[in-house]
Amino acid sequence: MVGVGFPVAQACPCRAAPSGSRWSATPADLDGDPDADPPTPPSLDVWRSVRASGDTKTKKSRRTLGLAKIAVAALRRRQVKQAQQRERSGARWKHTGLVFSTSLGTPLAAGNVRRTFRRTVAAAGLNPDEWTPRELRHSFVSILSDSGVPLEEIADLVGHAGTTVTEKVYRHQLRPVLLKGAVAMDRTFPSPRSEPARNLKSRS
Predict the structure, then answer these.
(1) 3-class SS string, 105-152
(2) Staple 68 to which of 3, 31, 103, 155, CB 3.0 to 4.6 Å?
(3) Cα–Cα distance between 131 and 71 in angstroms, integer?
C-alpha cells in the first residue's frame, strides 16, 4: 500500500466489508507495454471501493495508478503464494477472487490484519505502538512530497477531488512542499547578511 497510496481497507477487505481488491474486479497490469509509444507502465485500475454500492467516494477516486517496481514485485509474490495456498486447500478453497485473503481464500479478519501489520513493523525495527496500517498512506504522501511531486499530482494519486482535502489531512506530510516557494525565492533573491543589533540601534 505504501507503493501506491492505496487505502488499507480497500486493499485488504475484512469480514465486515468483504468487497475489496479482487484480481478480476481491480485489474492489475503487472507487465505494462514497454514497446508502446509512449511506453505503458504496469498499472492498477481503481474503479470500485469497499462501500456497499461498490462505487468510489468521488468520481476523482476512480483512477488508474502506475505501479512502482516494489509494488509489482509484491503483487507477483502474492500471486505465487496464493496459488500455493489454493493448491494446498483443495476443495476447502473459497473462490472469492480477493487479492489479500486468508489461506482458504476468505476475507481477512480486521484483528488479524492489525496483528500481522504490527509484526511486520517490529521486524523492520520500528515501534509497533507508533504505527497503524493507515500510516502507509501517510508515508506514501510524505515520500512524494519529499521528492518534489506537486500538490495537485499528490491529490490525484490519493484520489482526492481537490487539493484542499489533501492539505487538510496530510498537512504535516506536505510541509516540505509548502516551503518550496520560500526556498526558491531565497535562492533567487539572496538577502545580505544581517547587521549586528548594535549597528541597527545606532541608526535609529
Answers:
(1) CCCECHHHHHHHHHHHHHHCCCCHHHCCCCHHHHHHHHHHHHCCCCHH
(2) 3
(3) 20
Q: Domain extents for the chain?
A: 1-131, 134-204
Q: What is the pTM of this model?
A: 0.61
Residue 144 cell numbers, joined? 512524494
56-95 in b/e form (b: 16+ CB < 10 A) is beeeebebebebbeebbeebeeeeeebeeebeeeeeebee
- CA–CA gap between residue 27 and residue 48 (Å, rounded): 11
Strands, E assignment, the chain: 28-29, 43-46, 63-66
What distance in Å separates the CA atoms of residue 30 and residue 80, rounded to the nearest whole number? Answer: 13
Q: Could you read off the pLDDT tens digit of each residue along the chain, which spans 204 residues? A: 544 555 544 455 444 444 456 665 556 788 888 898 888 888 877 765 554 554 555 555 567 778 888 888 888 999 999 999 999 999 999 998 888 889 999 988 888 888 988 999 999 999 999 988 888 888 888 888 888 888 888 888 887 878 887 877 776 666 554 556 666 777 887 766 544 544 444 444
User: Do residues 13 and 50 make contact, with C-beta atoms less than 8 angstroms apart?
Assistant: yes
Locate 167 and state its grid cell.
Answer: 492539505
